Amino acid sequence: MLRRHLGETLQAIHLFGSAVDGGLKPHSDIDVLVTVSAPLTAATRQALMTDLLSVSAWPVTEGSLRPLEVTVLVHDAVVPWRYPPLRELQFGEWLREDIEHGRIEPAAPDHDLAILLTKARQHSLCLMGPPATELFDPVPQADLARALYDTALQWNDEADWQGEERNILLALARIWLTLTTGEIAPKDTAAAWALQRLPEEHHPVLATARAAYLGEAEDDLGDRPSAMSAFVRYARGEIERGYLGILRGEN
C-alpha cells in the first residue's frame, strides 16, 4: 500500500513502539514511521489516509486488525534537525471520522516528532531503507526535554483528558521518567517506576491505568475526576522540575 501511494519517494519504513519495545499489550497500537523524499500531493494524502482505514481498527478484538499510527516525514524537513520539526502526515484511529468525511490534516510543525524520532533511533525495526540511527540526526537533549514538557502542558483540566484518562496517566508517567532518567520506557514500565516515587494518595489511579493497559483490570478512571485532576497536577509539577533541571544543566 505504501509503495503504491508513495512510489519512488518512499525511502524508509521503521516499526517502533510497543511492537518492538516490550511487546504489544491488549490496547497497543502499531507505530510505523515512513520517510519520503518529497512532500505529498493533496491527492496522495487523501488516498493514503483513506486506504489506511481499511487496515486499521479499534477497539482490538480477537482476530481483528490492530489500530495503526502511521507518521510520514519528508527526510529533508527533519535532517538537518531543527525544532519544531515538520510532520508531513499522521494517521491514527482518533482521526477516523474526519478521514471518512474527507477532512485530512495538512503538513504541520509537531513537537512530538522529537520524541518519536528519539524512540525510533533508540529501538526500531527497519522494514525498508537504512536504520533510523543512520537516517536521522540525534535529537538534542534540550529539544527532547522541551517536546516532553510541551506535551504535558496540553493537559490542564478534565475536558483535556475525558475519555482518554488511561492514556494521559501513562503518558505523564513516561514523560516524568524520561525527564528524570533520560530513558524512554514502555508505558507499564514507566508506570511501575512512577508508582515507586508517587505519594500514596496518587497510587490508585496510576495503578488502575497500568493494570487496565495490561488487560488485568477494568478501566473506571472516568469515574474518578478528582483523583485524576490531583494526579495530573502532581505529575505536571514533577515534570516541570525535571525540565527546568535539564535547562539548568542539572541532569
From TrEMBL:
The keyword Transmembrane does not apply. GO terms for biological process: response to antibiotic. Its EC number is 2.7.7.47. Residues 11-41 form the Polymerase nucleotidyl transferase domain. It is an enzyme of class 2 (transferase). InterPro entries: AadA/Aad9 (IPR024172), AadA_C (IPR025184), NT_sf (IPR043519), Polymerase_NTP_transf_dom (IPR002934). Residues 134-235 form the Adenylyltransferase AadA C-terminal domain. GO terms for molecular function: adenylyltransferase activity; aminoglycoside 3''-adenylyltransferase activity; ATP binding. It catalyses: streptomycin + ATP = 3''-O-adenylylstreptomycin + diphosphate; spectinomycin + ATP = 9-O-adenylylspectinomycin + diphosphate. Keywords: Antibiotic resistance, ATP-binding, Nucleotide-binding, Nucleotidyltransferase, Transferase. This is Aminoglycoside (3'') (9) adenylyltransferase.
